[in-house]
């Protein structure tokens, strides 16, 4: 029926790229050579790049987002307990949080500060029940409801902003605090979950995404299993803070005229003007710990603004909408909040640049090269460290402080890793196609674990270099991938029709027998 119009491989690369995007084909595949040692057959296989950011690869990031949506959906309203230990470990660790959650941070452990700040209210504490599932409620009509929550946490204000996200008064806008808060946002969020569990009295599970507000500050959307009174969530958010027990980083220390230089014999950085060695990271922390009046370098607090919505499992449209909202901007970097460069207003460009300047020069971690600005040697220091050029992505214009994970999932959410969720999706497609007699290659089956009779690995993967004899051109790869994708899609749609004939009217007659593939 379909007639080839133009050979796909004759199309210009940029058009081919657009076409690939239309058909959901990865635009920057990585070529791998697959050798089947049992048959001696070799083939070059394009492996999707797997990018999660749209600017890198729209189809791959779109698929990654869909996977996250599925993960979110599967865990949200669970009504049974999962065995512990499975699922995705996103740094959310329940055990060991009996005491102060700050203890997770090594620098805090060293400074050993139990100095609680006085300006936060004490939180109520309930005995911890051994459950992750929320309570259900029975209505007078006998129906059972299992409500959950959708919560949004924001950071504090740094100064008033316009609707476009830019400061009303850029001169007084607190960029320094905004930058430090963004760099340490995950820590205060972690703290929030610990506090919430303590106050709620059960092992609260969540699927959360970190996204940017118009003012370019990160905020957190979270699907939470079970329901906790709004007042408690509010109280917990108000009382949650993270103290950064680091050497001071509010003002660059003048270490002579020039930057510290690496002293090879000493294996340390030294102030070139005075010849004095910079304190190591550990020495700096010891000094901090010994100082009875030391104050944290920074305190991250959550803002007063808290959005809270109760969501019932059976309200499918509500659930779907919330999941869409939760994952909407996952494919965008913080720096892309205002859109493409030609869509950004001058005020937004200024705001972005100023925030970036702060984020670029502040320390991101104990090992950050920027510590050399503050008279401290970075942890695990070596030659070649230059302030302002720390390689951590938190410092760049795309990330604006948010260099870490954008999705935070608690351990007992869906009980599956992302790879397992992915396999689920692929299995559905494969099963549908197999039903119609179409078999698509299962690359996972060609994994390193498959062996031949004598126990050696059956499939060998090797990289394909551009100059290799069997290396196809980009055009060839893309053209083939698109053709194949179109064929699978067509087959898949046809297979679905065969398995589930469209229902035109409700009837009690027996369903029509499935027609076999013609
Ligand atoms: Zn891709
Ligand atoms: Zn850094």
Bound molecules: zinc ion
With helices defined by DSSP (H or I, 4 residues minimum), what is the helix count?
11
Shape: globular
- Topology, number of strands: 13
Radius of gyration: 27 Å
Main β-sheet, in a few words?
Answer: 6 strands, antiparallel
SSE order in H/E notation?
HEEHHEEEHHEEHEEEHEHHEHEH
Report helical residue fraction. 25-40%
Strand content: 5-15%
Structural class: alpha+beta
Distance between termini? 14 Å
Q: Unreliable segments (pLDDT under 50, ≥5 consecutive)?
A: 89-104, 505-518
Average residue pLDDT: 83
**Spatial strand order of the main sheet:** 8-11-5-7-6-12
Please describe what this structure looks like.
- Helix content is 29%, strand content 14%.
- It has helices at residues 13-22, 58-76, 106-111, 175-183, 185-200, 230-239, 281-290, 316-327, 346-361, 418-435, 474-499; strands at 30-36, 41-47, 137-138, 144-145, 147-155, 206-212, 218-224, 241-244, 261-263, 268-270, 298-312, 407-409, 459-463.
- The longest helix is centred in the last third of the chain and has 26 residues, at 474-499.
- The protein is globular.
- The structure holds zinc ion (2 copies).
């Amino acid at each position: 029926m379909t007639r080839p119009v133009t050979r796909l491989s004759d199309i210009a690369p940029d058009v081919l790229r657009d076409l690939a995007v239309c058909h959901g084909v990865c635009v920057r595949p990585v070529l791998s050579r697959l050798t089947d040692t049992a048959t001696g057959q070799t083939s070059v296989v394009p492996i999707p790049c797997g990018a999660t950011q749209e600017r890198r690869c729209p189809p791959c990031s779109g698929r990654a987002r869909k996977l996250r949506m599925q993960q979110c959906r599967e865990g949200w309203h669970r009504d049974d307990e999962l065995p512990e230990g499975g699922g995705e470990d996103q740094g959310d660790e329940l055990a060991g949080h009996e005491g102060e959650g700050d203890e997770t941070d090594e620098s805090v452990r060293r400074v050993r500060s139990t100095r609680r700040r006085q300006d936060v209210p004490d939180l109520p504490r309930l005995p911890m029940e051994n459950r992750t599932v929320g309570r259900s409620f029975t209505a007078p009509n006998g129906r059972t409801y299992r409500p959950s929550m959708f919560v949004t946490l924001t950071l504090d204000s740094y100064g008033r902003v316009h609707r476009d996200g830019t400061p009303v008064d850029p001169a007084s806008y607190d960029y320094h605090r905004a930058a430090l808060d963004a760099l340490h946002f995950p820590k205060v969020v972690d703290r929030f979950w610990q506090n919430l569990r303590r106050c709620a009295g059960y092992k609260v599970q969540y699927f959360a995404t970190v996204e940017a507000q118009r003012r370019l500050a990160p905020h957190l959307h979270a699907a939470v299993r079970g329901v906790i009174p709004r007042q408690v969530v509010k109280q917990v958010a108000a009382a949650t803070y993270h103290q950064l027990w680091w050497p001071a980083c509010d003002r660059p220390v003048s270490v002579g005229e020039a930057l510290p230089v690496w002293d090879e014999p000493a294996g340390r950085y030294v102030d070139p003007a005075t010849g004095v060695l910079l304190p190591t990271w550990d020495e700096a922390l010891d000094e901090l710990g010994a100082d009875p009046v030391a104050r944290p370098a920074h305190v991250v607090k959550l803002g007063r603004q808290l959005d809270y919505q109760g969501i019932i499992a059976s309200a499918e449209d509500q659930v779907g909408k919330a999941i869409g909202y939760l994952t909407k901007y996952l494919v965008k970097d913080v720096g892309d909040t205002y859109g493409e460069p030609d869509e950004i207003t001058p005020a937004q460009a200024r705001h972005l640049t100023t925030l970036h300047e702060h984020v670029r020069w502040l320390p991101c971690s104990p090992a950050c090269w920027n510590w050399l600005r503050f008279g401290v040697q970075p942890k695990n220091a070596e030659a070649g460290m230059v302030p302002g050029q720390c390689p951590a992505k938190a410092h760049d214009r795309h990330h604006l402080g948010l260099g870490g994970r954008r999705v935070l999932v608690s351990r007992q959410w869906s009980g599956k890793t992302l790879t397992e969720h992915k396999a689920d999706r692929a299995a559905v497609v494969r099963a549908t196609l197999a039903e119609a007699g179409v078999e698509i290659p299962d690359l996972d089956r060609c994994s390193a674990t498959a062996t031949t009779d004598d126990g050696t690995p059956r499939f060998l993967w090797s990289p394909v270099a551009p100059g290799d004899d069997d290396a196809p051109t980009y055009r060839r790869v893309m053209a083939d991938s698109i053709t194949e994708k179109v064929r699978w899609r067509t087959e898949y749609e046809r297979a679905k029709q065969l398995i589930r004939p469209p229902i035109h009217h409700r009837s009690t007659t027996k369903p029509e027998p499935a027609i076999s593939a013609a």
